[in-house]
## 1
Amino acid sequence: MNNSRFILSRLWQSIILVFIVTVITFFLINMAPGGPASIMRMDTTQEARDALTVRLGLDKPVPVRYALWLGSAITGDLGESLATGQPVIQRIGERLPYTIELAILTLIVSVLLGGVLGILSAIRRGTWFDHGVNLFTVLGLSVPVFWLGIMLILLFSVELGWLPSSGTGKANATFFQHIRYVIMPVFVLSTTTLPTLVRFTRSSMLEVLSQSFVRTARASGLKESVVVYWHALRNALIPVISIIGVLIPRLLSGAVITEAVFGWPGMGRLVLEAAQGRDYPLVMGVTVVTTGIVVVSNFLVDIAYSWVDPRIRNR
Amino acid sequence: MKDSQNAKKLDTQNTMDIPTRKEGWLQRLKHHRPAYVSFILLIVIHAVVFLGPLVWRADPEALTMEGPQAAWSAMHPFGTDDIGRDVLSRLLKGGQVTLTVGLAAMLFSLTVGTIIGSAAGFFRGAVDAVLMRLTEAMMSIPNFFFVLVGLTVLGNTPFMVVLVIALSSWMEIARVIYGETLKWKEHEFVEAAHAAGASNLRVLARHILPQAIPSVVVVGTLTIAWSILTESAISYLGMGIQPPMPTWGNMLQDAQQYIWTSPMLGILPGIAIMIVVLLYNLLGDGLRDLLDPRYVPRRRRNAKRITNFFKKKAQGVINNVH
């Protein structure tokens, strides 16, 4: 399969995927007993409720409503938030940059740190270092994210007073002041991605080190450091690209809790507010946009992977 | 002739020392120290949580004489909570709810995952295409977004919490079952079962799915850990099982506003969640190691090296005789 055909087929699959996600989310939301109409307060008059029903299109059957929603969604109109009356797309636009900032920083930190720790523990397999790293990855996978956040606030904000406990400091902070707000959320969020990256890099590195070309390189008298850091490392890092695609939904999922703990005004907070306020158009919009981001980044990861390792196109 | 017989005999004798696949599962678990220890500790924790209230009879929902946020004492080993309830009895009751939610959600997602994965793998064609696209789509919705939407729509009774967690976590199991079904359905014994007139359902249930049990046990164990973490997180966000029924998650949520005055109220349930999740993760990882044919138990590694050494020596001697 040549490159452009590969990209086109992946693009088509991604579009189908987003479509299925909208179907799942829409029908899930409309499964509510009484449908989204259940948000209407009972103290309003019958006429007011009827008017709202018509305005939200709730007098039509679910598939028709879905078709209408999809029709306007394609043109970029995701409806209006019930709570504030603003367009959903505008509310999302206000929050999205914060989550993207958090997610990208976390991804950078955990890829760098995860790569280094994974490779070192593969090279030093069976030593105390390897066991120590292994212990930390299992602990990282097991610690409740929000609890870790609370404990860190307790330590660094309350006891030591080093870092601010919540907010972004965006309004009137310099870059270095803003960094202080970012440290704890990024650290907490990276517990959702770092352990997997460490494990994956480690096993990928061990796999490569056991292959025959590494043995040949050693046998030809190359220095161990050249074999490890030149021959093995480059091959071990290729599969790590693919795991990033798996980590992105997990990252955005972890952002819901991280943002709640640290008062970070991103998409996670928005979906929580929307869910608690039963703001159905907003819930729908936020979920679809977030999943769209996942699908797009998976698409990019696939393209990047096939560019680095062309064998993947023929699978 | 005699030599080759000897060689055969030697061979079987030597391989006897290497753990065989025929050992019982508990026997095999013993070869993996961390997993075995985790398994035992999990049994102990479940026993304490479910049987403990028979010994420690304090009412988890009654207010005590000591008042709120009492210090640790013989009367109340872990003190009292923000409105004066005994913390130990609440930890036990909350543990019952949290652990049950974890197990129930795992069983539920196992059921969904098995049905979807095996149907897709067994029938292929359009069924496969639709079900596997559905699985992929579910995998790209970030979990907590789905869970929050689900809880908003379905409400947060314990049953709905279990249902929503399960509906957000069956995909891994479905993919494992799908792979195993594809792998085993081409084998001769499955063809033989078909030829003997067994129905599709019977072939699936009696011949194919049992082959998938080992890998499903691994994923299932890790799913329990994941479900417990999710339950505690949604309780923390105030969207989970509602008070007065305690869970480790909503105890943490209650404790959060008092974290400055009595931090132990928040630390204890958090540690409880972490320990249980850690043990389930260690057990799952251990089971995965044991399933890996390349895995050699630590304790046996030296033994195996020695037997291999003698085996080679013996082989050499025999070859020389020839």
Note: Chain A touches chain B through 47 residues (CB under 8 Å).
## 2
Amino acid sequence: MKTIYFNKFYKSFNILSGILIIASLVFLVFKGLNFGVDFKGGTLIELRTDKSSANITKIRDSFNQMNLGDVSVKNFGNETDFVVKFEKQNSNDPQFIDEIKTKLSNSIGSVDFRRVENVGPKVSAELLRSGVIAIALSLAAMLLYIWIRFEWQFSLGAILALFHDVIITLGVFSVFSLEINLSIVAAVLTIVGYSMNDTVVIFDRVRENLRKYADVKIFELTNISINETLSRTIITSVTTLLALLSIFIFGGEILKGFSLAMILGVIFGTYSSIYIANPVLVSLKVSQRTIVKGEKE
Amino acid sequence: MLYFSKLRVFSVLIFTLIISYFTISNFTKVDDEFFSKNIKLGLDLQGGSYLLLEIDNEPVITQRLQSKVLEFKKFFKDKDIKVRNFVIEDKSIIFDVENSKIEEVKSLLDDDKSEINPYFQQYKSHQFNIENMDTSFKLEFSDYGLVLLKNSSLDQAIEIVRRRVDEVGTNEPNILKRGNDRILVELPGLDDPGRIKSLLGKTANLTFQFISSSSEESFGTEKLSFEDGSSEAIVSKRIVLSGDNLMDAKPTMNNQTNETVVSFSLDRVGAKKFGKATSNGVGKRLAIVLDGKIISAPEVREPIIGGNGQISGNFTFQSATDLALLLRSGALPAPLNIIEERTVGPDLGKDSINAGIMSLIIGFILVVAFMFYKYRFFGLIANLALISNLFLLVGILTLFEATLTLPGIAGIILTVGMAVDANVLIFERIKEELKNENNSIVAFDSGYTKSRTTILDANITTLIAAVILFFMGSGPIKGFSITLGVGILTTLFSVYFIARLITAYYVIKNKHKEKLI
């Protein structure tokens, strides 16, 4: 196969990544994330209406009259399904949901509540905390693992790539106000695993080549390694993306956010294994001596 | 790496067949319990309700402190120590001791063998922590004392919750402790949890108290409102009888008034108490109080001595049934708050299953087609490994009766996408080896050997993520982590035993053929 000179673009893509990360951070700090009821508390109702009567404005109006705090109504999948979210959660009042249902059917005709989620402030705070801890723990565990398996220069490269992927994925969620719920945390963790996986495959090859070629500069060497593993990188990304696209398109509305986050993560993860992880090795001037020294210790 | 002993081939085959059997057992009916295992569907797939309840322990703590004060008073009286000014303040007991006895009281409370402030050797903690300032003592539950108290009230509460849920008769409810003040209730198949919620939301503390005519009762009085909110009444604080003495309760029809009532029967002690009180109180009104609200306050026309009575109060048949149920199952030690509720209707669950299976089939076909396009014959081997991987994965989930959730199905599909990675790594490596090696058996062998650490590395990283999710995640997400984690193990098995076995067989047969892969 023809060699592609990935290393020519290290600089330009690093600048691009830097811009994307800064932009993501700006969005995350100033716009924030759109937390769902899992993390913000409140009530979510997924409802299905009779075909004829309802439209989004009507539903929104009738919910607004019920004094439930901030109400958001969105179409969910097809035109008869809606997701309504509001701040108030009153799960201790057993009639709370029934009353809403009665009032709603009075104004828009018969409705079916397909799903109700009601999360109190204490639980949502705990879920948010355990979500953050889970992501932090997984990053720490990856760091530890790669630290044991590789020299520190490699660990740094892999971890920077991970942060890159997680920050930009969350950034995209912030820009488009996509909802962050429990399944997004699962997606982020899987992204962390996938991105690491991708980086490790290339790094394994870099290390092998460092042993093989003593006199090739790391700048060249990373490019050789990327090229040697390129078809694997492409094939695996393609099969994973095929599976994910299938979930995204056919897996129903509930899995949309999850599969979208994963798709973004796989794309960024593949990109960062090449354009973040490797340039780090180059700028840290990794050479054959690095791994020989590492192995002696 | 290409050599397989006959025994090994045999065991791989048997193992794969046995596990795969459990995949198939999901779709067949066999009479034997072990062989007819089915994968368990999560609430998000079969529909149902998930409720997380939290005990409000404040009243229990106050109650316990009050009874402890009585114990202390008796204890010190027996020891001839004068203590006074008992107050309960800020969840602690405060009292004063005469000057000469300070040291004695200290040692009585602080001793490892203290009767009144038990010491728990294994936790190195007393029930109460003691603070002493001059003649004043302050006792506060120690951390362990508090844990003990919370655990016992949780144990009681979970028992009552179980009774109430069982009485309603939902199918296979799942009731579990969570931490030391929470109860998780899973109710499969229930799409309207309103009734259960109203049953669990009531403490069901039932008391009988006389309506007071004068405000100068020796026990003191309290003002309580009627349940329908219509009016209020002054009630004596003296409790004639409490729900503890109730043996049975059921909804019945009162033939004279033609209204639904709850009739109850009392145990021996209760019947005696009730008889005595009603004999003395003919003509007075007896308030029936549930959780601080008066249900009704009928006039006592004659002594009730048989231990049977009726509660009236504008009941519908449903509300009478519910009240009877609450009285039968007993009072909760403390109020329960529902802090999280998730309910999925059965048809959404069905839709989710269909969508999940649809995307699994399509994802699977896409991946299989792509692998065949890329590798031809070896693509078929990888695909065979993929199929057996799926059978193994679902089989293991079935065998261990793991819960399959919607994210869990997503995990299976994701496994399909990522599982081929290992075979791709191996095949690509073999291609490279073939460039410099004429003997194809050697090339294949070293292809397997050289890619091994990379494959392990790559899979361990995903496994780490799955394990962390398993421990940190809840409900549906846990389902995802299980399929993802088990998926990695079955992937490695199918790649290293099944695909390698076929590859080895094929390569040894065709070792002289050009361009094997």
Note: Chain B has 13 helices and 21 strands.
